[in-house]
Design a protein that fits this description.
This protein is an all-alpha fold. Helix 2 crosses helix 3, helix 6 runs antiparallel to helix 7 and helix 7 runs antiparallel to helix 8. It is flat.
């Protein structure tokens, strides 16, 4: 229905669980906390889950809107330093590429990540709290968001803003640790990627 492996439906089902006040996995032989999908993207899907329930087209349109909005914000954030010709090339590169052709119709976390990343680029938060909110949202949408957190810590360290760096780090930790601790409790790994990589790697069940 959604077009990208099984990930799409897990995020959708989790968003419906959030609407119902549950964080339990919908597909499971026994009750367990759903950590096979990052929670950030499912939270972004909750408006659709609440108002359209099982309408697959509504989810796809919403995901495409998140993706395009985030990309547009990224463009407007960076265009000021480019010449008119460079702006056109940049715009084509952003919107007309293999990623968009493959993913723009899919309900995957890349859409939510791009929206949050675009918001971060456009508004460029400077305070510890707003920067921590951005970093936490990125991490809880896609684990690669941790790269933003590390980059900000390095930036603050280079600027000798050690107090702000410690406050920023503590706020991010408070925001993301509950999810990763629940994941560790539920699956035995801090991120579901570790479980998947073990299964797909040499000697794993999927390599048999």
């Amino acid at each position: 229905v959604f077009g990208h492996y099984v990930d799409d439906i897990v995020w959708v089902l989790l968003s419906r669980g959030f609407v119902e006040g549950s964080i339990l996995a919908k597909w499971s032989y026994f009750p367990r906390i759903e950590t096979n999908a990052t929670w950030g993207f499912s939270l972004l899907l909750t408006p659709v889950a609440a108002f359209f329930y099982k309408n697959a087209l509504a989810f796809k349109i919403w995901a495409a809107l998140l993706l395009f909005t985030g990309t547009a914000l990224s463009y407007f954030a960076l265009r000021r330093g480019l010449s008119p010709a460079a702006r056109r090339i940049f715009l084509l590169g952003l919107f007309f590429n293999n990623f968009y052709l493959a993913f723009s119709g899919n309900v995957t976390s890349e859409a939510g990540y791009m929206l949050i990343f675009g918001i971060g680029l456009y508004f460029a938060p400077r305070r510890a709290f707003s920067s921590a909110l951005l970093a936490s949202s990125l991490i809880l949408t896609r684990v690669i968001g941790a790269a933003f957190f590390v980059a900000k810590i390095l930036e603050l360290g280079a600027s000798k803003k050690f107090k702000m760096a410690s406050v920023y780090g503590a706020l991010v930790a408070l925001a993301v640790l509950p999810y990763f601790l629940l994941s560790k409790f539920s699956t035995g790994a801090f991120t579901y990627h570790a479980v998947g990589w073990d299964m797909l790697g040499p000697g794993g069940p999927s390599s048999a």
